[in-house]
Design goal:
208 residues; alpha+beta; twelve-stranded antiparallel β-sheet; 2 helices; 25% helix
Length: 208
């Protein structure tokens, strides 16, 4: 699970620093002590826009690291303690309307780089996506919309299975009906004309 926290930090940084190829390079502002980063850390575009703000202590991240997009949208808050994510992580969707707060995407509790506590997520429209509880990196509870959605999916699958079983039952009944012996079909006999009888006083001629 420590790897998950590292992947989260990488994904956040990649999303925040994504920019067109023609964008200007970044300026790093910070200080070092004994060859290690120490104190306030800033990452800015050359035109001055702030993209990352955080702090280091003896070469390790400490406190809050906040990320912004090139448009100025705040998209992440990652809390650190001795270089490990510890505290409540918050992510937001980019592209908020002017004057409005960005829509939250994720809120998750970490302890020393491991999920520990509630983890909630939302869709871009603000509807709840998932609601989970972790303990030392292990999922211990799943509730709310996520559970309801799974229940709805199970009900849809059950209905679909019932419909398939109904169609299969009809096919079996048709096949059984086709296998049943059918009574023989009687061909009607062609009626023969009555035989000719000779009558007295009548001359008959035959042709060859």
């Amino acid at each position: 699970m420590v790897g998950e926290a590292a992947r989260l930090a990488i994904l956040v940084a990649a999303a925040a620093l994504a920019a067109p190829a023609a964008a200007e390079p970044f300026d790093v502002r910070g200080a070092c002590r004994d060859g290690e980063p120490q104190g306030i850390y800033e990452l800015r575009e050359t035109r001055g826009a702030l993209r990352v703000l955080g702090a280091f202590s003896r070469g390790k991240r400490t406190g809050s690291f906040i990320y912004w997009t090139t448009a100025g949208d705040r998209i992440a808050h990652l809390p650190y303690d001795e270089g490990a994510i510890s505290g409540t992580v918050a992510l937001w969707y980019p592209g908020a309307a002017p004057g409005r707060e960005p829509q939250q995407q994720l809120e998750a509790a970490y302890a020393r780089g491991v999920l520990s506590g509630p983890k909630r997520s939302w869709h871009p429209d603000g509807s709840r996506r998932g609601d989970y509880v972790y303990e030392r990196g292990a999922l211990v509870a799943a509730k709310g919309v996520a559970r309801e959605r799974r229940g709805a999916q199970r009900r849809r699958r059950a209905r679909a299975g019932g419909a398939r079983r109904g169609r299969r039952g009809e096919d079996l009944r048709d096949a059984e009906r086709d296998r049943r012996p059918q009574p023989p079909r009687v061909q009607p006999r062609a009626e023969r004309p009555p035989p000719l009888t000779r009558r007295a006083g009548v001359r008959y001629s035959t042709s060859t």
